[in-house]
Amino acid sequence: MIIDAHTHLFSPEVIADRTRYTTRDSFFDFLYRNPKARIASAAELIAAMDAAGVDQSIVAGWAWQNNDVCIEQNDWLIEIARQHPNRLRALCTVQPNAGDAAIREFRRCIESGMIGAGELNADGQNFRLDEPGFLNLARAAIELRAPLMLHTNEPVGHAYPGKGQLPLAAIYALVKTLPELRLVLAHWGGGYPFYELMPEVRAASKNIFYDTAASPLLYAPEIFRAVANIVGAEKILFGSDFPLILYPKRQKEPDLRPFLDQVRAVGLSAEELAMVLEGNAERVFGDW
Ligand SMILES: [Zn+2]
């Protein structure tokens, strides 16, 4: 079995009328005002999963700035996961700055079958990890036993739209404050795994996991072996960032196959590969 732990979907309303949302959300506008920025339907995701032999996807919406838009999109994601019970499991998005309304929505989503929250984006949604809005949400996540998936990115390297400024130190401060919080840091944690070589960081980061979303656009394939050596393969979740085009030089349409082929060839043992492709996502999102 293969689980893709990081995909994005938008409701048919967003697909039909993108401008209705770009005018309400400056972060969405920044990344999606270009009609070439891809938005996939659930049918397209399932077709790509079928073609690549992916059994299940964990679906995130978008890190909307407005909590009411979050609620509207969460409603649709709850429904689409119910329609595809064996194929899709969904994460909710909330706006941490919305305070009690965000906590209420988070609770409603988990009670409606969603398996966590994400992909939250501190830069895109304008929140800080050390402010009450986010900290209260993180406390609710612990109480609800629901992981948070957080966008992180490398502080160095090439620029691209959506590359944010969230400092790795803020993540370390967060896990020191709330060590029980189960956190999935997207895009390899923006380099955070390296610091798990420091004993105190490793000890504080027991409940941090890393997904591989967009990896081919960011890192050489050796990152798989390198991070597995540092933190252990049990902390790595395969995620694609579908419908992102991962190999723009040779891909026109989203396709999960080339990345999966790459992952199978990065030098992980069969046991490690099984953890990365399936077991870790099952455990992190299921068994808490
Ligand atoms: Zn991301």
Fraction in helix: 40-55%
The CATH topology turns out to be TIM Barrel
Count of alpha/pi helices: 14
Strand content: 5-15%
What can you see in these coordinates?
- With 288 residues, the protein is α/β, with parallel strands linked by helices.
- It has one domain: TIM Barrel, CATH 3.20.20.140.
- 44% of the residues lie in helices and 10% in strands.
- The chain is built from 14 helices and eight strands.
- It has helices at 12-16, 18-22, 26-32, 42-52, 67-83, 100-111, 132-144, 168-177, 192-195, 199-204, 215-218, 223-231, 257-264, 270-286, and strands at residues 3-8, 56-60, 88-90, 117-120, 148-150, 183-185, 208-211, 236-237.
- The strands form two sheets. It has a five-stranded parallel sheet with strand order 4-5-6-7-8. The chain has a three-stranded parallel sheet with strand order 1-2-3.
- Strand 2, helix 5 and strand 3 form a beta-alpha-beta unit.
- The radius of gyration is 17 Å and the shape is globular.
- The structure holds zinc ion (ZN).
- Zinc ion binds next to loops.
- Zinc ion is lined by residues 119, 151, 186-187, 213.
